[in-house]
Amino acid sequence: MHLKRSILATLIFATAVLSARAQTEAIDALPVSAIFVVSSGMWEEQNLEPVKGADGQLRPPPATPTRGYYKVVAIRQDDGTAKVYLQRIVFTANGPNLLENVELEEFSQMKSYVTDIRPESSNGASASPGLFVTVYLKTDPMAKEAESWTVLIDELGEMKIEKASN
């Protein structure tokens, strides 16, 4: 009986350690140069193309659209400026997966010092497709006030980056 308890205690401890290690591996993979990460908005695409099955046969497209959300990420560079990326994350049966990663060149060309990124709302996932975030930045690190720029993606997936008008 004592042996069973020892084995059970060891299994419980090992499970807890492995679970904690898996969780810390995910956060350890985040680069220290990531200064802002904002998840916001949502997108969906109708699946119109046939899908190739495991047997190589074409199957009709899924009835439900593919859905996901956006992330806007600022990565600090060695000179203090930041590169800003837009990511499209897709929902899968195994959890979220990165579908697309695009550098937003408009911010790189400005040699911007990103001071904040904020979503339009902090109320959770949007019910309609699109994205609206505000990127606060300085082009001169000594400037007192940051400029605000909006990243807008409409329901059709068209993106605009423009200086915010208050």
Describe the structure in your own words.
Residues 1-22 form the signal peptide. 19% of the residues lie in helices and 45% in strands. It is an alpha+beta fold. Strand 8 and strand 9 form a beta hairpin. The longest helix has 27 residues, at 2-28. The protein starts with a helix and ends with a strand. The mean pLDDT is 85.
Overview in brief:
19% of the residues lie in helices and 45% in strands.
Low-confidence stretches: none
Helix and strand pattern: HEEEEEEHEEEE
What value does the Rg take, in angstroms?
Answer: 22 Å
Strand order of the largest sheet: 1-4-5-6
**For the report, how would you describe the main beta sheet?**
4 strands, antiparallel
Gross morphology is globular
Helix/strand class: alpha+beta
The number of helices is 2
Content of β-strand:
35-45%
Give the % helix: 10-25%
Integer average pLDDT: 85
